[in-house]
């Protein structure tokens, strides 16, 4: 008995003592010191063991820290102490504010398997000591400020599977030993300054699945070795200086879905083996020196959705075989030397939305059954040698947004059926052809069209007065035809320079006939006006969902449809997971919502049309129910793949910053998910829709018509939200009633604030879109200044106020020619109308008090929409004025 007793005591002692001793001597003191150094909130609040602190996990039988997850905590300080936690296997410090050099002592953490230091400001060289981490499987140093070379000591990391070093300032070359890392699966080094050749054995020893090296200075050929294992799934090498041929060995990789090799210096043919890449969905090889014919083998890639071969040296015709690609949505082959007919078979790809054949040598005719495909939005045939007439069937292309047929050899007359393409908004260009006959008055029905160019033809007759129906026109060109008569009096025509009408002998600009005959002098006064209009022209379509994707691809849309189909086919509705997309990054900024949000569920929600809540200028919004029951609104950005891929880092930083902005009247992002090329922003779900719906939706039942006090509170809330934004120096890009959301109590929250931060105004397309906003809300000075300003925001807010007061839309046909709500209200006195005739009579006649308040708010709205920016009040002042009105 005694023996047993002592024995068991011994056993207990044996089991217990090390735990206490080791914990006290080692990690306890380190953890307490660390808590002090980093000031981690929630740590050390009570006397509980550090093993139960947030983000800490200890080894089961000992109190030694095995996992330390301090991600997303806005921490700064000296992390060197962590290297004392000898048992550490997993260390995640991502998304903090750590700076300085990465501690060399991290190299002593011999048990470490997972090290994530991404999204900090770590600078200086990468310490070679990390090469001692023999157990390391995953190393993520991306998105810091690291400089120098990739240390050669890393070749000792034999178990490494994931190596991510993108988004730094690394120089030198990709070392050849990377090719000897036998376990490597993921290698990203994009957005650095790496030069020299890609090692010719890269991937040969491993099962490389993802290789992303875009935006470096890499030279030499694409190594065959990356295709050796046949496991590659994603290959992104865009924006380097790569030369040589695209390797035939690509045919090895059945699972390769994305190939992006655009903007390099590649030569030679696309290998026929591309047909073996059966998973291929996205092939982008534009802006290289590729040549030869477009290989018919692409037709074997049944999932091919986008084929972009623009700006290369391709010759020959487009293979008929491509017509079998039922998933093809974009075929972009502009800027090559292709000839022959417009490929009829391609026009039968029933999902085709963009066909860009421009700037080639196509010399056939336009087929009659042109719009067999119901989804065609972009038909770009300019700068070719296309002959024959424009078929009347063109009128069947009802979804077209842009029709470019300029600089061809088209004959015959303009088919009046074009007037049936009500969606046409970006441009109708028939210039530099041999078209004759009259201008069909039916074109006047194109009320969304922004640019009309029929110049340099042999068109005759009058400009029909029905053209006044083209209310969205900003740019017109009728020059160098045989037109006669008087140019109709119409705003957009008046604003155009005389040169838009010149070269028509019998055409008179004013009724006195003093400027007929086609020799008008250039109109200098209008010049400035015109240029600036032209710039916004590129972005504004009248319905304004047009954020033009002239060069970039509508991948978001495409992928969604594709996945939707896949989802339907495989019954995703039953909750099965089908090829869940590889989520590249994701985060929830709000601590207490982290558990409740499931990224996969958010992604899935956006794949179903029935979840769609709204479609805005810059995004589409979906409703997503999380498994936890939480309802989110998920915003899918329309900022195209390149923006997402190339500016991801910046984008995420901005989102995190915005996530911290706290104001009752702002919709701030609570998180994001990035997968493939898609960026999703997560927001709280607001059940009452938008202010625009509340005010203008004709289906709103009378009992839900907002009364005056509700409207005034909404007006004040919006003003407060904007005043706060201006206070923190953020200018909103797109203020409109459609971007004001309403919560269950009709409290307004201004949305789309992230857009102002995500679109970098220093970049091409974004700078244009930056002056866009929504039609009817754009301050007049934007056209000249090209700059979004706080006074510009005040103007747009003023338009919202007018909507609230009048229950009218910012642009309505009833306002007459070239008039919007602002002009209509400001010109009321000139028309001899009293303010009461402007206000919504259903409200202003209810009580004397309401009427008085409405008149006072009208004064504020008039000040906000003053034509002179300097005369508009500041947002803060607007809040004060409105609150005074409410209290009195
Ligand atoms: C104290 O520690 C326990 C774990 O033992 C934890 O659940 C609790 O939240 C901590 N209390 C405070 C105030 O941090
Ligand atoms: C924590 O423990 C120390 C001594 O170990 C004691 O002095 C202190 O009162 C305790 N604090 C709490 C909140 O229990
Ligand atoms: C603790 O557990 C690990 C494995 O979980 C084992 O290798 C180690 O020997 C154990 N230590 C003690 C002191 O029991
Ligand atoms: C962090 O602390 C260590 C000593 O613990 C010191 O050697 C190192 O210089 C410090 N690093 C920084 C960036 O202050
Ligand atoms: C790490 O190892 C080096 C060399 O073995 C040693 O000099 C240093 O003190 C160690 N650091 C820690 C924190 O143990
Ligand atoms: C860093 O890279 C690893 C390995 O690829 C990955 O698991 C981890 O999620 C990445 N960290 C962040 C913050 O994206
Ligand atoms: C990579 O491995 C090959 C074959 O094992 C070897 O010949 C070569 O020297 C290694 N390269 C490097 C840089 O270690
Ligand atoms: C095409 O895509 C669908 C859905 O993603 C997938 O199920 C199918 O296997 C793909 N086909 C090929 C040949 O990869
Ligand atoms: C189109 O051009 C090609 C090559 O120049 C020529 O062979 C062919 O006959 C032309 N086709 C038509 C219809 O003119």
Automatic annotation (TrEMBL):
<dbReference type="InterPro" id="IPR000719">
    <property type="entry name" value="Prot_kinase_dom"/>
</dbReference>
<keyword id="KW-0732">Signal</keyword>
<dbReference type="InterPro" id="IPR011009">
    <property type="entry name" value="Kinase-like_dom_sf"/>
</dbReference>
<dbReference type="InterPro" id="IPR003591">
    <property type="entry name" value="Leu-rich_rpt_typical-subtyp"/>
</dbReference>
<dbReference type="InterPro" id="IPR008266">
    <property type="entry name" value="Tyr_kinase_AS"/>
</dbReference>
<dbReference type="GO" id="GO:0004674">
    <property type="term" value="F:protein serine/threonine kinase activity"/>
</dbReference>
<dbReference type="InterPro" id="IPR001611">
    <property type="entry name" value="Leu-rich_rpt"/>
</dbReference>
<keyword id="KW-0325">Glycoprotein</keyword>
<keyword id="KW-0677">Repeat</keyword>
<dbReference type="Pfam" id="PF00560">
    <property type="entry name" value="LRR_1"/>
</dbReference>
<keyword id="KW-0547">Nucleotide-binding</keyword>
<dbReference type="GO" id="GO:0005524">
    <property type="term" value="F:ATP binding"/>
</dbReference>
<dbReference type="InterPro" id="IPR055414">
    <property type="entry name" value="LRR_R13L4/SHOC2-like"/>
</dbReference>
<dbReference type="InterPro" id="IPR001245">
    <property type="entry name" value="Ser-Thr/Tyr_kinase_cat_dom"/>
</dbReference>
<keyword id="KW-0808">Transferase</keyword>
<keyword id="KW-0675">Receptor</keyword>
<protein>
    <recommendedName>
        <fullName>Protein kinase domain-containing protein</fullName>
    </recommendedName>
</protein>
<keyword id="KW-0067">ATP-binding</keyword>
<dbReference type="Pfam" id="PF23598">
    <property type="entry name" value="LRR_14"/>
</dbReference>
<feature type="transmembrane region" description="Helical">
    <location>
        <begin position="535"/>
        <end position="558"/>
    </location>
</feature>
<dbReference type="GO" id="GO:0016020">
    <property type="term" value="C:membrane"/>
</dbReference>
<keyword id="KW-0812">Transmembrane</keyword>
<feature type="signal peptide">
    <location>
        <begin position="1"/>
        <end position="23"/>
    </location>
</feature>
<dbReference type="Pfam" id="PF07714">
    <property type="entry name" value="PK_Tyr_Ser-Thr"/>
</dbReference>
<feature type="domain" description="Protein kinase">
    <location>
        <begin position="607"/>
        <end position="888"/>
    </location>
</feature>
<keyword id="KW-0433">Leucine-rich repeat</keyword>
<keyword id="KW-1133">Transmembrane helix</keyword>
<dbReference type="Pfam" id="PF13855">
    <property type="entry name" value="LRR_8"/>
</dbReference>
<dbReference type="InterPro" id="IPR032675">
    <property type="entry name" value="LRR_dom_sf"/>
</dbReference>
<keyword id="KW-0472">Membrane</keyword>
